Amino acid sequence: MPRGTFGFSRASFSVFARVNVMGSLEETCVSLRAQISATEEQLAGLKRDLALAEAQTERENQETRGRWPLLPEEYKRYGRQMIVSQVGLQGQLKLRSAKVLLVGAGGLGCPAAQYLAGAGVGTIGLIDGDTVEVSNLHRQVLHRTANVGKYKVDSAIESLRDLNPHPKYVAHRTHLTPEESPAIFKDYDIILDCTDNPATRYLISDTAVLCGKPLVSASALRTEGQLMVLNNPPRAPSDKTGGPCYRCVFPKPPPADSVVSCADGGIIGPVVGTMGVLQALEAIKVITAPEVVEGTARPRDPPSLHIFSAYSSPLVRTIRLRSRRANCAVCSAEATVSLDTIKSGSTDYVFFCGSASLPSLLSPEERISAREYNQKYSVPSGSPPSHTVIDVRDEAQFGICSLKNSINIPISSVLASNYAKPAHGQEANQIPPWVPPELANNTDSTSPIYVVCRLGNDSQIVVKKMKELGLDQHGKRFIGDISGGLRSWKEQVDPEWPEY
Amino acid sequence: MVESSTGGYPIPITVEFTGGLELLFGNERKHKVVLPAQLEDGSPPNISYLLGYLVDNLMQDQRKDMFIMEDSVRPGVLVLINDADWELEGEDAYELQAGDTIVFVSTLHGG
Predict the structure, then answer these.
(1) Which domain holds residue B53?
(2) ipTM of the complex
(3) What's this model's pTM, rounded to 2 decimal places?
(4) pLDDT at residue A13, rounded to an integer
């Protein structure tokens, strides 16, 4: 949407001001209806003018082009890829007339858009409702430090224009919604899924299948990435010769608590960058592919999943995927998902994928706020009252910053212990190896134990475990956690605490 | 290799975990596993048997439902038999052969 939207919001603001004076609700409605129809008329007029202007520009461009289909500058700019036989002039012309939509302008979308713009794709749409954060910059290579706080799509398009002014760039400053996805997708030829959550991934795949668009889907976390070209060729639902969709490969979504984000799990920039670049490559391959003539058997690449693993050899492993699923909810003859069920909301993606529940495992008496903990144990002189702090973040995070005198016991080592819970009535006398010696050898001590983590979720799990082991001596020894974890510590106690 | 009393040679295979599943298996991606040639009921070991074997013998994390749900792999995990989706090979009924590589891939969602 252009900056003109500000004009609209000012207009509606003045309507409300007038409405209050008039007072009557009925008059308000009449006035609003009149305003809406006038504005709609104005919008229709603008759209007509734009279409005329665009047609005129196209005519003029063709005239200046004369007998050559590309501008002189375009031959120079794209020459290095045009002399590769897989692209050629025909491929370049296909790229110029192609319309590519990238959903997500983050770690995948930035490098993908950069290479597609560089290659001369004619129309590049970007959709993302997020704004640029400092923690994005290590991997989201189109965004500049000066653009922190700006919409990602605006920041990205700014960089893309610097790189190549020829393509038409379309900014959608919103998260993809089921209501809008069909209308947005229909204006594009191919879709790139550069998002970061299962619900949006299913929405993108379903809409792509039902709008008949091939889909290049990628994802990344920590040191690994995955890439698939789906719905390719993009045949009608029930046509078995079409490529499989995301639902054919993953008919059921993963349990919500097994889904890890880059914010929680971490991500190495070049890993997600590699995946974004590969998405651009696959999109170029799909766009420039020679037409398949019916009857001639040109073998297509079979549907595949490419797995990139930065610390494995080989770096990439390719897996043959199944073809379309005979009972797929979207692309089979038994489909239950349609554009109508998507738009109306009866296909409910949030419900389908669920959300991770973070139940409060501990009672308020088993928790202490960061402020209270600090008041109790940070004494200006002398030594604080005896107690133990156990930090259950993993080693890498503990190495970045940790509370004074805290002990690191990663939650993974607690959960990996095969120690069985003692049967009812049986005394807990076996202590698993992760329990530090000072606690294991001193089971009569009643000095309190505090567990802390990044956000205050894992700490609750570990408190529970320790109590199951009987380390609290049937309530004689306090074991609890610092609620809200080290994030609260920064908010309530130490503003200089590093936030990572 | 020694022929076992139940008949046939033990079946050595390679099992790999990726996409974060390795964190449930001692943070080791690649494991060598030797399965018996025959199970107690005389049948050869298949993927279904392997799943139980992995949970009982190789998995270190206590959260079994991060790997197995309703007697199969949890949604979001792909099983690959020698680099092909297990659905191309008969899913959990596939009978393991010496030298097979079975890969378990958890889907990633970050981007």
Answers:
(1) 11-106
(2) 0.89
(3) 0.82
(4) 43
